[in-house]
Amino acid sequence: MQDTKYEVIPPPGKPPELSENALTVLQSRYLIKDSQGKCIETPAQLFSRTASLIAGAEAKYGADSNQINGWHKRFYDLMASLKFLPNSPALMNANRPGGMLSACFVLPVEDSIEAIFETIKQSALIQKAGGGTGFSFDKLRPTGDRVASSGGTTSGPISFWRVFSEATNAIQQGAFRRGANMGMMSVEHPDILKFLYAKQNLKAFTNFNISVKVTDDWMKRVLSSSDSLHIVKNPRTGQRYLLPRRIDITDYTISDLHKLAGKSAPAPQAKGKFYTVGDIWKTIIKCAHKTGEPGVVFIDRINRDNPTPSLGKIEATNPCGEQPLLDYEACTLGSINVAKFVTSSDGKANMDWQELAATVKLAVRFLDNIIDVGSYPVIGTVRLAQANRKIGLGVMGFADCLFALGIPYDSKRAVEFGTTLMKFINENARKASCALADLRGPFPNWNQSIWRTKRNKKVRNASITCVAPTGTISIIADCSSGIEPAYSPVFVRRILDGSKMLQINPVFKQVAEKNGFYNKKLEKQIRQAGSIQKITRIPPAIRKVFKCAYDIKPQWHIRMQAGFQQHCDAAVSKTINFSEKATPAAVDKAYKLAYQLGCKGITIYRRGSRDLEPMELD
To answer: What is the pTM for the complete model shown?
Structure first.
């Protein structure tokens, strides 16, 4: 984080009021340091240098110095109030060498040694600057397939995936934050069984999340004819195969599979000898139950919302799954802390919708400006980032917002409120993007996008809203992350350097102190239990509202995700929490419900299924 030259840009407004944990994280990973590792920047100066750079984009559209100063103050106040924060790279890199401000990238993995290692190099450059990368391994020929140039056979996608993972490990020491990747593979790839089992070893691919891409047609077979045979296809030749049940999952090659003649259906007598659609589905469920991976991505649903289908299909997402992108596309995210918009009058809590609308409008402009002043370490991403101008405006502090409003997360009222809230943000974000299109013109690829052909609406950004997990920026804002329920009213969080910090939910603490039952003994009790539901000295009405991640049945997690997805251009990052005792059948039910309710993907986590968890209890 050291800069040889550092120009202090005086903050144009009041300094932010930050929690102790926020200061710890900022000092550890965001604030500029001298050659001895000492912070030489205050949080106010960080927000000021970020706001200054973003305001500078206004010059491109005719703003004079006074107007730019005005935008500097508006953007500074927006962040310093903690009502909105952009993704971490924007805070880390603004007005600094390199200057990469976007968090999300997808890179192609083409089927040649030269292309694979070029992508590895590109991902290393992105991760060094604090970005996350997503990949699809669909195009790589299966294990044992012919390599014409050498006369030999290929070692397959998993071996190359391992090189990607090791490259991330190699650059992590000098990077701003932990390297993050998303690896995806179609359920119809011949190496799908190897892909599904690869992360069952918890020490392998630790810097990758993985998801299986499934089509609507395949899901329909899961739901109605799961005993139909599962057919895979060699991406190089188009040849179709069946997967024999006798194959060794770790060592099988393409020659071990049963080749199908033409496009005819397999003979009925083949059943019993080969994997069915239901077998593959059960394998996905079994693996997810055991380790939380793989997730499932409903790829047809994602591509129905692809704003620029003429440029190609979407094959992968960013590391947390909320931002589907074309190859070489980039996206900048930002999140509104919705808890900041709860007001109280006559003892009743309400949302300040007018102030929220104004914040959405300013946040959209902020994110659009980033595209003009940010740098991109990979040349290919510059073209698409500026041609499609995708942004991802989402929310954080949602659980805190529900707490303040007195609404239990696991209730119909909460899902209805979440759906209404995201609809309001989405509609106002689109209005803001339309207004920017009137001022600056629509995004360059607008003419060949669904915004023109289907929606007949000029917008500045091909995609405008998504819901990110907001892991670190929610610590800075001292609020709950994304749309997740609170993990626990009191818990311990692990951060990048392995240190731990005590996290106390500010809304719970305020309510507990107001009602006279908060003390250190209670704090310790909650840290051990992870819940207040069995602490009888806390009034039942308060216990009902302050339900946390593992107090809430999985169906409510999924219903909330689906509610937000209804009014979201991209997708929603959400972890569906399960207790230690949850069965594979419960996971099966959750994955199917996510598909039936219109989610674009699903990720689950069963408590205790991994040795190290980022959030823990005593």
So the answer is: 0.96
